[in-house]
Structures are given as structure tokens and as C-alpha cells.
Amino acid sequence: MPSATRDWPRIARPLCGFVLLLSLAPLFVGAARKFATFGRADVLLSAEEAGYRVLSVGSSARDSRLLPGDLVVLLDGGPALEVRTPSRRLAASPADLTLLRDGRLVSVRSGAVPAPWDLRWVVLLVVGLGSLVAAAMAAWAAPRAARPGANFLFAGFGLCLALLLALTPSPPVDGFFRAATLLEEAARALGPAFLLAFVFTFPRPARRVRPWLFFVPAALLLAESARVYLLPGLVADAPSAVRRLDVAEALWIGASFLLAAGRVVTLSRRTTDLLTEKQVRFLVLGTAVGLSPVAVFGLLPFAFGTSLPVLTTLSLVPLLLVPAAFLAALLRYRLWDVEVLGREAAATIGAGALGAALFAGAQLLSRQPLLTALPYAGALVETAAGLAIAVSVVPVRRGLSGALSRLQHGDRTAEREALLGVARELLSPRRTSEIGALLSERVTRGLGLSPAVLLPVEGELVDASAVDGGPPLPLSELPATVARRPSRLSRHLLAAAPSPAVARLRQAGFRTLAPLAVSGRLLALFAVGDRDGRIPPSGEDVELLESVLAPAALALDHARLYAELEREAERYRRLKEFHEDVVEGSAAAIAVTDATGRLTSVNPALCRLLGAREEDLLGRPAAEVLPREIPAEIGSARVTVPLDGSERVLDVAVSAFPGAGEGSASRVTVLQDSTEVARLEKALAERERLTALSALSAGVAHEVNTPLTGVASFARLLLDDTPREDPRRPLLEKIEQHAFRASRLIGSLLDLARGRPRDLLPVEPAELAREAVRSLQEEAALRGVRLSVDLPERLPRVAGHADALVQVLVNLVKNGVEAAAAARPGAGSVRLGLRAAGERVLFDVVDDGAGLSAEERARVFAPFYSTKTDRGGVGLGLAIASDIIRSHGGTLTVDSEPGAGSRFTVSLPALA
Fold it and tell me: How far apart are CA 492 and CA 104, in angstroms?
């Protein structure tokens, strides 16, 4: 049984649809017959045995001289029944009629009767068909409605209203005429009953009222109509009975209308739920706006004692709003826009009424005797009225709409108008938070929607910190339409698709989400609540909100770009500060030049290097400030420059300034003071050289020491067998002596190579010098070089290995002898001088040879470098000598110029 109760709307819907479709037949047939009367005299005739009975005479047919009840016997001398369409014949031209009036034959001359189109009926036909369509839509939606019975009751009312307005019995008086009359009577009886049952059921049932009771009077009227029209034999006075029935029906319709209006007004004044209030408001506004023009323009002509058929006819058009409003309330169509729709409809009707009034006034004015006497005066008046209507209708409608809007919104009107000015305020750059605060304030004040917040969107997440301080909302949990248009977060949505995001928003009081998008890219959502916590925004509110959010979206996009620009600027600032800190704190000297070669930036290291202040350097050409040894071309180099009275070694790196055009002189020059590095590199190279030399010395000593030992041994054997007086004995003694010295020297070299120098003993510098000179005296004489020695009387002793030091002096003196002999054959000289200098003893070997160039001086102590490769030199003597002196804590230096000879100086620490 409960299932049958739920399914009855689905069963009743096709039945109701069948009835509505069936009603189209009499409506279309009646309309066709009515259209057929156009072009005929407005005289209703009924065929009888003797002729045509006149049933009624319209106001436009007064010139026909016919009266209701007349029987037309002859028409133009012939039987009237032979004319099949007498009303059309009467409209075509004057006619001679023979009438039976009050039992007497009367001959009359009928004038040509005008046959105007019944525009009023055409308008009513359109309204009736609209009502029928509304009834069909209500019946179709009944199974899905909360109260299906209300839908079917309205469908019945709509059908009755359609029959009342559109079904007009038209001649000839036949079976269809009588059936149409009965249908019209049924609509008069049942229409009010359906209306009362509907308003006492919808939008909520009335207590202690049974809707079926309203059909009792309707049933009584139906029974009386059946008796009067179907059983005329039971009626004593048919015309009186018809009049009484018409009065009863009029009273029934009037009473029903007043009762229904009272019910609706009562509901409108009662505080109920919001949905019911909006539905009742739809009923009230639709009925008021639809019926007001009929009431106003029906009374005005009567009050002025005239008729304005055009104005009266046009006033019927708004009747369409009555069934439309009922249907919208039933289907809950744009309930939140009821005030807006009512306002716009009233403004449109008001503008149309003004236009119709102007036209009607022009018609009345054109009929005045003064204007009719003037040619074309009436036409000019009507033309001027038409132009005035065309020019004024749109402004009048806009003005009426604005006035009604101000009346509707009251004190909030100014705030709503100011809301549109937000676009101007958003032209200036603002942060996202400022845009959100501005929108929230203006929307709350202008639309009354609270709360209102801006929710930025980042990727697939919505920043919900302004909602409840919680985590972001996943965009996927919100309605799919939220990115395209404003979306309602209704209870039905939450019930149909449970979503934590929607639940959070609703719990925080938000009911509508509107997107802020630019070029299809969603930037943010604007969340708003309802007005007074219960009234959703109307369509007009949503449109106004969208018109505000459109420029706000652009401003938000600009704010996003502005924020990105600020972040980039901050990053650039920090990067700049970092670079400046790096440059300022760099130990390397850095100089930046512009396209003209002038210094634009220098760091403290450069100022310290050049001994100048920053302000004294900036703006000056780099060529004037930097040492000339520093290259200006792009590349790297190591240069030696004189700075602060000493030579400094600088590593120079010159690069083009980033972003400088081709051929620009903008440069970044980095100077690294590498003096100490160069010294260490030189020392390292020297160390490596010594290591190589030591390894070589060890190898050579090992290979040479064995044969030297043999030479010394064999010399001793020969000496033992040689008498003292033998002249060869001194030669053998020298062989033995030099062999043992060479052996000791090789031993020293081995100790040096192994890193174990022998113990240094005190030696006399003069003895070292004499030994060296004695060793080379004969060779110098053979080469034609004068060898001299300069020995002071007293010199401090030095600590050293005598053989090694003698070997050094021998090497230096021998080199001098060879150089002097080569440069001055037979006239060269070499001097070995000794002198004390503070705590050191100096050995000077001076020759008058060819001297050395700067390049030769730089490499003279390098292993395997020799200036006498053509004379058998291998470049090891000076290298070994330098190592020996260094192992004694001394130095070996050279002072020489090309063509001026050379001076080699050995400096050794003096013993105290």
C-alpha cells in the first residue's frame, strides 16, 4: 500500500496528460470557427424552419437594424435560408431584410456592417494556450514534486483557465456550439474549485481544511448547468435560468478569487521557512503584476466615459504572468530571484502601459473636431505619439526598474551601486590580501552576504586559512562547476556527494562559491554566505557579484605578478647584496669598467692594492689607474708590476661584462696578488730541481766512485814503487791527491742526495780560496787568463765541508776562466776576492767575459741549462754549486750584464 501511494503520481500523470491533449481538440476547433467569423457581421444567427433567428447583436453591428429575437425570413427578396453565411452577406453590402418581429412582418434596409478582427480574443487565446502549457508542465513534473497533488490541482486550474479564455462558442449554433458552451460552463464551475484547493494545499497544506470540500459548490453548479443546457424541457423560463446561472457562477468565481487571495496574503504575512516564503511571494507578485493592468486599464476608460479598445486589449497580455508565476513557484524556478523578476516585469509592464496610454491618448486627441477639420492633423498626432513611444519606452523601463530597485534594497542601494566602483579601486596595484579584504568588505555591505572571503588557488589546492584556519581544500572535492560559474553549496549537493571540503565550507557559514579566472586559469574562489544567514543571493546578486569579480580576477592576476616581481626583486636584492659582500670581502682586487673604459665599481682589495680611495678611482679611465703592465684585452696572464716600491706578481683575469654588446669596452678585471704564491712556486720548482739533481748526483757518484777508488789505489801502488827522485813521482802524487779529493767530493754528493749532509766544521775562507786557485792555476795559464786572489788579513771562519766548498769555488773560477778566455783570448782575467759583510763572509768571483742577459741570469742555476753547450757544458755545475751553498745556509747569486762580465757571489754565515 505505501508503494501504491508513492506511485500514484506516475499513474495520474499520463491520465492528466491525456485530458490536456484531449482539450486541444475543442480549443483548436473553437479557434478555427472563431477565425471563420472574422470578416462577418457581429450578429449571432441561428437557423430555424422559417429563417434565421437573431440571438445577439454586437456593438459593431448596430447599423444592421437587427434586434435580438428577430427572425430573418427574406434577404434581398429571397428566402433567407438559401444564404448559407448571412453574417458575411450583411458585412459585404447593404441588404433588404424582411423580419418577423414581435409577431409582425417588418421590412428594413440594413447598412453595411463592419466586420473587425477580434484582437481581444486573439490575446485571450494566447493567454489560454500559455495557461494550458503551464498546466502540462506542472503535471509532467508532479512525480518529482514534494507535493504531487498540488501539481495536478494547478494542472486542473490551468486547463479550466485555458477553456475560459480560449474557448468561445462561435456560430453556427450546432452540436459543437452547445458542447463548447457546456465546457465553458464546466470551466467556470471547476476552475475556482481547483484554485482554492491549490492555494490551500500549496505551498503547505492548511490545517482543518479539506480541499475536496471546494468541489461541492462546483458540483452543484455543474448539475445546474446540465439541467439548464441539456434538459431544457425541465426549465420553465430558459433565458431567466441562464441569467441566474451566470449570476451564480460570477458570485462563485468572485468569492473564490477573494478567498484564494486572502489565503495567499495570509501566507505572505506569516513567518515560515525561506522556501515557502519565496513560493508565496512568487504567487503574490505574479498575480498582482498580471492582474493590475487589467484592473487599471479596464477602469480608466470607464472613469473617463470613453472606450480604448487597443489599451484594454494590450492590458490582457500580462495575464500570462499568473500561470507562469504559479508554475515557477511549483517548480521552484529561480525562487531567489522572485523580487528581481517581479521588479523587471513590473517595469516592463509599466513602460508598455505608458506607451499604450500615449497611443490611446493620441487616438482620442486625433478624434477631436478641431483636428479632424485639419488635413493630416490626426495622422501627425499619431505619428508623433509613435515616435515618443519608441524613444521613451526603454528609458522609462530602465527608470522604473531603478526606482523599484531602490525601493527594494532601501539603504543598501548606494552600497550596491558603490560595489560596481570596486573595479576603479582595483586599478592600482594591490596585494592579494588587500584585494580579498576590499572584496569582502564591499560585498558584505553591498549585497548583505556574510561571511565573504577570498580563497586563493594554487594548483589543485584552495587556501582555506581564511575559512577556519585549517589546511588547504582539495579542488577535486568541490563541485566541478565551481571553476566556471558561481556554484551553490546546498544540502542536496552534500547529501548527493559527501565531501569534507563542502562540509567545512558549510560549517563555516559559506553557501556559494564564485570563481575568479583569467583566460581559463582559476586564480581564486570567492566564498560567501547567505543574506541574514538564510536568504541565498538572487540571480541579480550573482550577476552583480560576477561583474565585480571579473575585474577583481585581473587585479588578482596583477597582484600575483606583482608578488612574483617583488619576490624576484627581493631575490635580486639578496643576490646583489651577496655578490656585493663577496666582492667587498674578496681578497682579489676587482675593477669594473663601462663601455667607455671608465671605472664604475671597485672593491676594497683594489683600493688597498693601489693605495687609493674608492671615490678617487670611480669615474676615471682604467688605463690611468691600473698599472700599464695589466692587459686590457680579454684573457688571463701573470704580470710583475712595481707597487709600493717593490715588485708584485699579479694574476690578471679580464672578462667581458655580462650583457655587454659585442665590441663594448665593458670589462671585469680581477687582480690576484700572487707574489707569495710565485715565491712558493719558485721554491717548489727549486725543490723539485734539487731533488732531480740529487737523484742524478747519487747515480753519477755511484758510477764514478768505484773507478776513482781504483785510480787512487793504483796511484798509491805506483808511488810505493817509484823513488823519490824520480821526476814522475810528483805527477803520481797529484793523481793520488786529486783522486782522493774527487772521492771525498762524490761522498759529499751522495750524502747530499740522501739528505744526510756531513757535519759542518770550522774552516778558514782563505784556505778554501787558495786551494781553489791552486787547482786552476795551470789551466788559467794555459788559456792565457790572469788568475788572481784577493785575501784580507783577517776573516772570520765559516762552518762547512771544505771539499764541497772548494768544489764550488773551483766551479765558479773555472767558469770565469772559460768565459774570460772566450771573450778576451790571451787578455782575460779572473779575480777571486774575499770580504766580510756583517755576520757573513762573501766570496766574489769576477771575470771580464761576455756577461749574461736577463733571460740567462734567470735560468743560470737551473739544472741542465748551460751557456757553453758548444764547449761541452751540460748545465750541472752551477746547479750543484747552488745546492751545496744552500745546504751550508748560504746563497749563491749572480750580477751580470751583456758585455760587462759577471760577478758570482757566495755568501756564507760567519762563525762567531
Answer: 79
H or E element, residue 376: none
**Which DSSP state fits 432?**
H
d(CA 69, CA 239): 12
Domains of the chain (ranges, CATH numbers): 1-38+133-262 (no CATH), 42-116 (2.30.42.60), 271-419 (no CATH), 422-563 (3.30.450.40), 586-673 (3.30.450.20), 762-912 (3.30.565.10)
Identify whether 203 is preceded by a cis peptide bond (ω within 30 of 0).
Answer: yes
What pLDDT was estimated at residue 1?
Answer: 41
Compute how many other C-beta atoms are within 10 angstroms of the C-beta atom of residue 226. Answer: 13
Distance CA 614, CA 600 (A): 10
Most confident by average pLDDT, 2-6, 209-213, 681-685:
209-213
Give the 3-state secondary structure of 632-645: CCCEEEEEEEEECC
C-alpha–C-alpha distance, residues 75 and 78, integer Å: 5
The larger pLDDT score, comparing residue 713 to residue 141, is at 141
Compute the distance between CA of residue 599 and CA of residue 619 in angstroms, rounded to an integer: 5
Give kind and range of the element (H or E) at residue 623. helix 622-625
Contact 152, 19 (CB under 8 A): no
CA–CA dist 283, 533 (Å, integer): 24
Element (H, E) at 99: strand 95-101
Terminal Cα distance for the chain, rounded: 137
- What proportion of the chain, given as a percentage, has pLDDT over 90? 9
Q: What is the pLDDT of residue 276?
A: 79
896 strand-pairing partners = 902
Give every strand in the sheet of 646-656, ordered side by side.
599-602, 589-593, 667-673, 646-656, 635-643
Q: How many CA atoms lie within 13 A of 140 on its CB side?
A: 9
Q: Which amino acid is at 164?
A: L
Q: How far, CA to CA in Å, does 264 sit from each of 77, 283, 346, 688?
A: 62, 7, 20, 115
Show contacts of 137-145: CB within 8 Å, 24+ apart: 137/327, 137/331, 138/326, 138/327, 138/330, 138/331, 139/13, 139/16, 139/17, 139/20, 140/13, 140/17, 141/330, 141/331, 142/9, 142/12, 142/13, 142/16, 143/9, 143/10, 143/13, 145/9, 145/330
Which pLDDT belongs to residue 872? 46
Residue 594, φ and ψ in degrees, nearest 5 = -90, -170
Cell of 828: 782575460
pLDDT digit string, tens, across residues 104-119: 888 888 766 665 667 7
577-586, 758-767, 880-889: the lowest-pLDDT one: 577-586
On the question of pLDDT at 317 being above 80, the answer is yes
Q: How far apart are CA 163 and CA 181, in angstroms?
A: 10
DSSP, residue by residue, 575-599: HHHHHHHHHHH-SSEEEEE-TTSBE
Q: Which tops the pLDDT comparison, 460 or 866?
A: 460
Spacing of C-alpha 714 from chain mean position: 105
Residue 41 near residue 113 (C-beta atoms within 8 A) = yes
pLDDT number for residue 426: 74
Question: What cell numbers appear for 697 in the block?
Answer: 748526483
Predicted pLDDT of residue 104: 87
392 has pLDDT over 70 = yes
Q: How far is CA 428 from the centre of its chain?
A: 17
Q: Using 50, 70 and 90 to split pLDDT, how confident is the model at 413?
A: low
Helix (H) or strand (E) holding 665: none
The stretch 806-835 carries a mean pLDDT of 88
The yes-or-no verdict on residue 371 having pLDDT over 90 is: no
Phi, psi of 724 (to 5 degrees): -70, -30
Counting Cβ atoms within 10 Å, is residue 239 exposed (0-12), middle (13-18) or buried (19+)?
Answer: exposed
Mean pLDDT computed over 307-320: 77
